[in-house]
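Write out the 3D structure for:
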Amino acid sequence: MKNLRNFCIIAHIDHGKSTLADRLLQWTDTISERDSREQVLDDMDLERERGITIKSHAIQMNFPHKGEVYTLNLIDTPGHVDFSYEVSRAIAACEGALLVVDATQGIQAQTISNLYLAIGNDLTIIPVLNKIDMDAAMIDEVKDQIVDLIGCDHDEILAVSAKAGIGIDEVLEAIVSRIPCPKGDPEAPLQALIFDSLFNPFRGVVAYFRIFNGSIRKGDHVKFVATGMDYHADEVGILRLKQEVRNTVYAGDVGYIISGIKNSKEVQVGDTITHVGRPCTEIIEGFLGVKPMVFAGIYPTDADDYEVLRDSLEKLRLNDAALSFEPEASAALGFGFRCGFLGLLHMEIVQERLDREFDMDVITTVPNVSYKVYTNKGEVLDVYNPSGLPEPNYISKIEEPTITANIITKSEYIGTIMTLCVGKRGILKNQVYLTTDRIELTVELPLGEIVFDFYDRLKSISKGYASFDYHPSGWQTADLVKLDILLNGEIVDALSALITRNNAYDFGRRFCEKLKEFIPRQQYDVAIQAAIGAKIISRETVKALRKDVTAKCYGGDITRKRKLLEKQKKGKKRMRQIGNVEVPQKAFLAVLKLDS
């Protein structure tokens, strides 16, 4: 164990984590030239297309140093705020962390957020300044920022360029010399923490674990403590570029176990594995329960695929523990699931993965947040969906969730960013100058206001320089109304929204205008209306496709033309009574693009 090191790489998005991981793998000859490519650990097509890390990836390397061979277990983590739960689980399996900071951008909001996660778990922090070979690099200035943030010496900061391969040897030596070896007793009863899992269609659930005490051998009779289920370890091993089989995995190591588990509910991230014959006396502290921030309904386009969708979501949750879901029904869309996500990007990625990995064609409803509704009878209801809201005369008050947002930006954009926050009902709590031209704003905002277009608008008004991080801060009373969307007089519950009374009229008008673009023309007029209760506040009409029935009339009395038009009008009226309006997927997410 003294030659073992477990560490992760944490940083803000686009600061070079995956590139640094690539270089570490090349320097230690973990991957051959033939297997080498950019973002080698990002094995999802989605990650490679978008250039972001979505999943934490574990891999083992061997590094010879001063006549000894050290085993390094690396976990590369995502940088986007929507995948912070992946980071927290990676941190729980490590003793140290490389904190990567981009020399051209300096410290960003997610850098600070991930650093606090690592410090909270008593990890040894190795600061790494990346992209030092860039023309825009502000090496001394960013080093000063790092010193102010974590209180280290200038000499402790490693200056590297992951792309050019500068300073990689120093990083490897620092991992060996600064990060402590794992503490644990190889002779004690087995105590292993499951930090990730995935579903293999041929072999069942593959669980990734970190052993804190004891060891696990092939064929051992093991128990998963939280579920109480016991299995035989059909295969155990370590995580190289591919899974490598071992007879025994020892204390301090990161590995995987295959036990032929077919039911995905039997494996929980954060669970403890121990032996049946010689169990451990206490379980490992798992992870904090994840709190979904954004809710949306996911429905199969074909109602017969409901059970297939449930199965797909359960398998996806194995690999993405931040996803939560429960069954629900909609009058417009039938049976589906109310899903909880950590943010809009997380929702988009889940929808894309359902399509690619499980071939599921789904409809996603308008995203919203959860509200606490206090009734006149003193009851407190958690409402995740506007259709679950009681009648207005039964409601005493409604509370909405709030967040504390940290925005780091250049000082020249502070005016426009404050205007954006105030327009979203934000309250400025604090502002701190990190340097002469970089400022950190702390703003309290209603969560429902940032769900739609806040992040995109923040990026556009700051020309991409502002970084954004947030965490839940509590609840506040809000004056909210339920806005219904009607198509031909029928309420489409999947398009309903809870919105502040002051914004309802403007929102309803713009939503109707946007829906008019997306709903295809029918053989009859389609009326799109926005209503609060029984009061219609906005209307748009999708005009009917019409045949020119008067084309054959070439002169004569006007009554001949009028007679033909009246006959057509009656036909359109009959058609409207029996016709269904097809609502395309784009219409459900039109609310996200109201300002575009």
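The first strand starts at residue 4 and ends at 11.
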